[in-house]
Amino acid sequence: MNTNNTVPSLDLRNFQPKSQFLLIGGPCSIESKEQMQEVAPILTQSGVSFMRGGVWKLRTNPDSFQGLGVEALTIFNKIQTQYPLQLISEITDPRQIDILLPHIAAFQVGARNMYNYDLLKELAKTDKPVILKRAFSATVDEWLKAAEYLKKGHQGELFLCERGIRTFETSSRYTFDINSALIAKQRTQLPVLIDPSHGVGLREYVPSLVWAAAAAGLDGAIVETHPNPECALSDGRQSLDLQQFQSLLPKLDAILKLDERSRL
Ligand code: PEP
Ligand code: MN
Question: Is the pTM for the entire model greater than 0.70?
Answer without folding.
Answer: yes
